[in-house]
Amino acid sequence: INYLKENGILILNKDDAYLKTIHWTGNKKCYGIYNFANNLDVYTEDIKFYSSHTEIKVVLHDILGLIFRLPTIKTKLMGIYNVYNILACITCTYFFCTEDLNFICESINEFEPILMRGTRFELNGNIIIDESYNANPDSMQITITEFLKIFKDKQKILVLGDMLELGEHSVGEHLKLKNYIDFDRIHSLYLIGENMKLLYDSLPQKYKEITKHYFDKNSLLNDLKNLVLTNKGLYILFKSSHAVGLSEVVENLKKLKQQT
Fold it and tell me: Which long-range contacts (CB under 8 A, 24 or more apart) does 243-247 make?
């Protein structure tokens, strides 16, 4: 921010623990989830997560002090992290580009998740959520936590592949995943890759009973095909680094959808 011009505007997420420490006396616009401290320009009044979409009610304070309640946003994006992305988008767009709130909301509603970054589809009464493009310790933790929270009353299945390029931290970061997986709240866990084998080996026996590990994508695919064709009402999350190849498993499940 030292390079921001005097007449520049700082866009700030006030819910971020690190960004809260920034002291900026110049012009700024702040956003966050709930406006408890009454110091936000853009914030949410309500957030509801559904299997097919997320509904968000947003309030905006303009430069004249007027308060606007935006039309309810219905986005295909999932997770609280995407709510923050949407709030940042609204803040930047309104104060820098256009004050047409209907246009802003419609644009967000029409946005399609990028392939392998939260796209979802239905297969035989089951919901597949594809996050197979990328994975690191932070994104893995957040995605798993949000998945368990959003679909708390559903039968949930995790399909997790290796997080690559972690170097000397690889073993420890994969073992940490068991701290984020609430085994009492999932139907089953499918793991693939050398590093995920370390996680599997570290699990207590009672958790291994609902966990399977694979080195081979075809074996994983065959088991998942059988799972989705003989069950309904499952919510299945795929998450891994792209090179693991979970995206190929997802694509084959899509082909199965076309055949059924």
Answer: 243/164, 244/132, 244/161, 244/162, 244/164, 244/192, 244/193, 245/161, 245/217, 246/132, 246/159, 246/161, 246/192, 246/217, 247/116, 247/130, 247/132, 247/133
